[in-house]
């Protein structure tokens, strides 16, 4: 059983926040809620460095915020980016939508923060989880797919580390 | 009649007394009245005379006075009876006689009162016994007269007996029944233990019962008699049975009853029985009644002792079997359950009892009650409170598991070996099989939740205390990990065998993790050998996969540089052999065998890494304070340093200086430890971390706190910064088992702040990156 569901139910049983159940009913199925709370638990316990995410508000499990740090040894080292994750109500059968909320200069990220990552598009499978998505995203930072760039400038500059770093830093906003 | 009848014949005063003449005149008058015919009034007058004679003869006499000479000879008496017979006057005569008996009861009363008073004063039952002889005499003297009626086909005996009984009962004093009880008890007990020669004749109970039967009062005294016997059975049970659990008492009691008590009551109920068979037939129902009482008494006694009987099981098995028979005969099951539950609450389920004791008692209860009631209804009713209580105890699982994994634990796995190891069945998964042709309804005194199809082997029962088996598996892993790491001689056979047994019980999949742990250990042996081929190393590491092993207590212990070099060397070789795998050392686990070469002696010891690291520092500098060492070794708590120093001091290697620092004794100090010890010394390694000693509850608490910390860290990382309220709210909402107050959280965050994990500005918390 997902650890969060009992606390959700318990909260509503105590009458403290009786609207949680309603919200759940309105936006998603119980399996979806279970799944998401399970994933939250896994993510929290995974202890993976450089990635984190958490539900944005108490009443909504479908919108998360998180941070991603660049992996050591890449041009993104020591930089961290804010991201948002939106889960559709038929998650996990449909991929979640991820966006960079802070500017990120990257071949596969457009100027609005949209991300081009195969597992979030056609390669999506229900076996992926928030944890694996965030890990993929982290590795995407260091190893972009320059064949299908969203940001052509970045893709061109990728070969030139110095210049790329300079451009990157001109965009970068520390959080 | 025309002429004046001559009423009075002439009298000769000289020849006859006045009475005689009156009588003659009377006779004459009668004849005149009857007019020569033999009937009517004249006859009646004759009858009156005969009545008078009979009465005189029948009148009850006081036996204490000398018998008066018979007032009439036999013939006259007989004539009188003959005369009374014709006009059917015998029956009224008998009635008159019986009335007389009633009227004369005061004579009896005097005797009875006297004997009773004597008993009250002396309590001498032997004297009181005489009363019945006296009564007997009264009975026979008075009753003799009734025989006269027999000749005339009028059996007065029964009527007489009734009259005598009525008189007797009406005059018994209040204390009679207690006196009589005492007498009966005496006759019953006397025959076995108390036989003074003088009392032999009088205590012969058959005679007493015969007498009582003769008086026709046996039914009236039946209550007293049975009460005496009931009491005697109770005394017998109480005298012989308490605490005697190792042999079956019931047959002995029944034997006693048949040998002693049965003949006694036989005198009462079946004195006239012609032969053994008839006797038994008559006594059958009576025997049943007393046998019931016997069982009930024993049952009550054993019910009161049941707690201790269970404690002493299986030595007390005979008592349990006795109780089983008694329960089946007396139907005291509800009372039994109530009693046992009460005992359990009072003596077992409180803070003073250790969990292992409670478990042991529970297991014994299971075994006992299963013997007592194979259907399990009793067990179900008794076990529920125990199970509920055990569920609340923090260390129950640990206790069960540690017993599960040892051969000689309280579970006594060996005694179930006969039946083979059965897989643990889930209490919830067994449903009634409706197609079972041998299906029986639940026993009629079963409680609502009772199921016949519940698992019956003890381990299943214990595991089913908890709804989930995962807790057991987790605890098993911890235990297995600890035990595997404790083995240093490479003999893992026992652990493997145990693991196989547990796999039979819990199933392969559940114990997969344990399987991996076992494999790790065995692989370690191979790894060590493989790496030794590449070059000699004094290290014997055990390589464990951190994903599968329970968290090992880690302390930051800085090992000496030499050690570090060896470790790194080993780690590199390991990574070469196993690409993609890296070793992470847990410096505080394991043992170190070392040899200290001092100026005058060599000390060999087997110590913990901490102790080894401590002594290592003395090779460069011979005086250290505990604090210096703590800094050097990066150990937070100085206490473990001190204990390590003391261990060396005990070996005579170090000496504590007055200022609290320790000094290395290059040459053995006179009278110091070295002499007391042999060359090879083993310092008992400190128990592998105090963490183990900590209760499961604490561990769970820390574990939960750890989970909460992960959530706090996760949310701080995700949001960047949060206030305490926000953290508290999110934890309450998303973290499992979070039930702390915000104040509690504030304390927790403060300690995290102290450790430098978080920072706070104006009430806004951030994670330290």
TrEMBL record, chain A:
Pfam families: UQ_con. InterPro entries: Ub_conjugating_enzyme, UBC, UBQ-conjugating_AS, UBQ-conjugating_enzyme/RWD. One of its GO terms (molecular function) is transferase activity. It comes from the Eukaryota. Transmembrane segments: none annotated. The keyword Zinc does not apply. SUPFAM superfamilies: UBC-like (SSF54495). Residues 31-175 form the UBC core domain. Keywords: ATP-binding, Nucleotide-binding, Transferase, Ubl conjugation pathway. The active site is at residue 116. Belongs to the ubiquitin-conjugating enzyme family. This is UBC core domain-containing protein.
UniProtKB/TrEMBL annotation, chain B:
GO terms for cellular component: anaphase-promoting complex. Residues 426-637 form the Cullin family profile domain. InterPro entries: ANAPC2 (IPR044554), ANAPC2_C (IPR014786), Cullin-like_AB (IPR059120), Cullin_homology (IPR016158), Cullin_homology_sf (IPR036317), TPR_ANAPC2 (IPR057975), WH-like_DNA-bd_sf (IPR036388), WH_DNA-bd_sf (IPR036390). Keywords: Cell cycle, Cell division, Mitosis, Ubl conjugation pathway. The keyword Cell division applies. It comes from the Eukaryota. One of its GO terms (biological process) is metaphase/anaphase transition of mitotic cell cycle. GO terms for molecular function: ubiquitin protein ligase binding. It holds the Pfam family TPR_ANAPC2. Residues 431-450 are annotated as: Disordered. PANTHER family: ANAPHASE-PROMOTING COMPLEX SUBUNIT 2. Belongs to the cullin family. This is Anaphase-promoting complex subunit 2. It comes from Botryobasidium botryosum (strain FD-172 SS1).
């Amino acid at each position: 059983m997902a650890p969060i569901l009992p606390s959700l139910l318990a909260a509503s049983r105590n009458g403290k926040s009786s609207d949680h159940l309603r919200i759940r009913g309105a936006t998603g199925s119980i399996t979806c809620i279970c799944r998401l709370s399970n994933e939250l638990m896994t993510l929290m316990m995974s202890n993976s460095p450089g990635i984190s995410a958490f539900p944005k508000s108490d009443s909504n499990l479908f919108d998360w915020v998180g941070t991603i740090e660049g992996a050591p040894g890449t041009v993104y080292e020591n930089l961290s980016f804010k991201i948002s994750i939106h889960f559709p109500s038929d998650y996990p059968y449909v991929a979640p939508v991820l966006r960079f909320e802070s500017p990120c200069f990257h071949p596969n990220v457009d100027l609005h923060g949209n991300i081009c990552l195969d597992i979030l598009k056609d390669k999506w499978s229900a076996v992926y989880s928030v944890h694996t998505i965030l890990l993929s995203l982290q590795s995407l930072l260091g190893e972009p797919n320059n064949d299908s760039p969203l940001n052509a400038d970045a893709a061109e500059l990728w070969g030139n580390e110095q210049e790329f770093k300079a451009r990157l830093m001109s965009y970068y906003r520390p959080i | 009649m025309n002429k004046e009848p001559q009423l009075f014949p002439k009298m000769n005063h000289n020849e006859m007394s006045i009475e005689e003449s009156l009588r003659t005149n009377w006779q004459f008058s009668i004849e005149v009245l009857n007019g020569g015919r033999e009937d009517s009034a004249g006859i009646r007058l004759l009858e009156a005379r005969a009545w008078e004679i009979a009465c005189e003869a029948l009148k009850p006499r006081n036996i204490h006075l000398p018998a008066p000479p018979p007032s009439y000879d036999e013939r006259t008496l007989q004539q009188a009876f003959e005369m009374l017979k014709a006009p059917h006057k015998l029956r009224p005569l008998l009635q008159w006689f019986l009335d007389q008996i009633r009227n004369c009861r005061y004579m009896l009363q005097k005797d009875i009162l006297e004997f009773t008073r004597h008993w009250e004063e002396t309590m001498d039952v032997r004297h009181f016994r005489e009363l019945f002889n006296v009564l007997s005499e009264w009975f026979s003297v008075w009753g003799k007269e009734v025989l006269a009626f027999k000749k005339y086909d009028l059996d007065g005996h029964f009527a007489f007996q009734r009259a005598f009984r009525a008189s007797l009962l009406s005059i018994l004093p209040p204390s009679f029944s207690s006196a009589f009880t005492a007498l009966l008890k005496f006759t019953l007990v006397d025959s076995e233990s108390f036989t003074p020669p003088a009392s032999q004749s009088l205590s012969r109970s058959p005679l007493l019962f015969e007498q009582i039967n003769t008086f026709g009062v046996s039914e009236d005294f039946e209550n007293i008699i049975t009460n005496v016997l009931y009491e005697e059975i109770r005394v017998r049970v109480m005298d012989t049975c308490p605490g005697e659990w190792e042999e079956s008492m019931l047959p002995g009691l029944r034997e006693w009853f048949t040998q002693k008590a049965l003949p006694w009551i036989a005198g009462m109920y079946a004195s006239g029985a012609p032969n053994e068979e008839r006797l038994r037939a008559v006594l059958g129902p009576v025997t049943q009644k007393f046998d019931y009482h016997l069982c009930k008494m024993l049952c009550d006694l054993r019910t009161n002792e049941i707690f201790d009987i269970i404690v002493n099981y299986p030595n007390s098995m005979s008592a349990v079997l006795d109780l089983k028979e008694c329960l089946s005969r007396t139907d005291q099951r509800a009372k039994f359950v109530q009693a046992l539950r009460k005992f359990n609450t009072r003596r077992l389920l409180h803070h003073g009892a250790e969990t292992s004791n409670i478990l042991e008692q529970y297991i014994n209860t299971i075994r006992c009650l299963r013997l007592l009631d194979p259907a399990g209804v009793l067990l179900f009713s008794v076990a529920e409170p125990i199970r509920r209580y055990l569920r609340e105890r923090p260390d129950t699982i640990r206790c069960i598991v540690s017993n599960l994994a040892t051969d000689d634990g309280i579970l006594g796995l060996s005694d179930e070996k006969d039946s083979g190891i059965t897989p643990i069945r889930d209490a919830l998964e067994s449903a009634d099989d409706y197609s079972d042709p041998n299906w029986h309804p639940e026993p009629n005194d079963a409680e609502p939740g009772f199921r016949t199809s519940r698992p019956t082997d003890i381990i299943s029962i214990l595991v089913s205390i908890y709804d989930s088996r995962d807790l057991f598996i987790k605890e098993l892993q911890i235990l297995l990990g600890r035990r595997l790491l404790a083995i240093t001689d490479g003999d893992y056979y026992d652990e493997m065998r145990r693991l196989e047994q547990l796999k039979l019980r819990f199933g392969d999949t559940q114990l997969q993790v344990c399987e991996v742990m076992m494999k790790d250990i065995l692989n370690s042996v191979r790894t060590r050998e493989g790496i030794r081929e590449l070059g000699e190393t004094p290290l014997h590491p055990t390589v464990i996969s951190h994903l599968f092993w329970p968290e090992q207590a880690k302390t930051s212990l800085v090992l000496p540089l030499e050690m570090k070099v060896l470790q790194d060397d080993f780690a590199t070789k390991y990574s070469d052999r196993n690409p993609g795998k890296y070793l992470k050392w847990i410096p505080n686990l394991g043992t170190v065998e070392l040899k200290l070469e001092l100026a005058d002696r060599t000390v060999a010891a087997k110590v913990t890494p901490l102790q080894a690291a401590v002594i290592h520092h003395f090779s460069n500098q011979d005086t250290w304070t505990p604090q210096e060492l703590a800094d050097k070794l990066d150990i937070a708590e100085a206490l473990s340093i001190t204990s390590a120093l003391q261990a060396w001091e005990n070996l005579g290697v170090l000496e504590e200086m007055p200022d609290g620092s320790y000094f290395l004794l290059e040459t053995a100090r006179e009278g110091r430890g070295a002499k007391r010890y042999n060359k090879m010394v083993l310092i008992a390694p400190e128990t592998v971390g105090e963490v183990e000693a900590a209760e499961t509850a604490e561990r769970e608490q820390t574990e939960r706190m750890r989970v909460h910390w992960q959530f706090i860290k996760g949310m701080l990382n995700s949001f960047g910064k949060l206030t305490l309220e926000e953290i508290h709210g999110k934890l309450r909402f998303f973290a499992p088992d979070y039930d702390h107050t915000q104040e509690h959280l504030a304390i927790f965050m403060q300690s995290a702040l102290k450790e430098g994990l978080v920072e706070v500005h104006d009430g806004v918390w951030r994670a330290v990156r």
